[in-house]
């Protein structure tokens, strides 16, 4: 069941899966209203493909001591890494000792797109949601590419909801914040993006056909734990929270593996 149309603390329910709605299916409402609390909210849906963008904020590049990239730094984020906005994030110390947070705006594609110009790209966007692109920095460094470091199970909390594009007409002026165990660690704005949302969507469509439901993660502002002195990493027992204006708030507890 998908919960849509918030009203007076309740949500009108539909049996239409959100991914079907993104693909253009009509909404079929259930009778009555349902009460929804944080404990009930899963990821809005599991995207077919998740594209990540690295090094896309001026302040982050300065923080890392890197050069401004000439083109978007593109990597895959596995669909199996998706989890809910209030679910546990599993960090196994036997796998990674440098798990890090990255609060990001996620772009939801709403129609097929191929070789689009930037001025055409936003017309293909269905909406936006909050994302945390959790990253195992030690695996990234060891591999030289980012599939393992970005793709571990539960390393991509999404939600709590999708805001349609008409409700966020300017994705280039959105505040992004992160708290680690109650301490504010990220406080940025999408104004600092090197490549804006339209450029990123167009760039991805140059190489791949984007399909309804695909997600593009747009990079994170400064304040990640791995670039601090001393380094700060996620460990079991931590709580990581992110908040993106108009896109909602997440709260994920970090847990040890359950096996």
From TrEMBL:
Asked if the Swiss-Prot or TrEMBL record annotates the protein with the keyword Metal-binding, the reply is yes
UniProt keyword annotations, A-Z:
Metal-binding
**Please, which domain of life does this record's source organism belong to?**
Bacteria
Q: Which residues form the Fumarylacetoacetase-like C-terminal domain?
A: 49-255
Entries under Gene3D superfamilies matching the protein: Fumarylacetoacetase-like, C-terminal domain
Q: Tell me any Pfam family this protein matches.
A: FAA_hydrolase
The record's similarity note reads: Belongs to the FAH family.
Q: What name does the UniProt record give this protein?
A: Fumarylacetoacetase-like C-terminal domain-containing protein
Q: What is the lineage of its organism?
A: Bacteria, Bacillati, Actinomycetota, Actinomycetes, Kitasatosporales
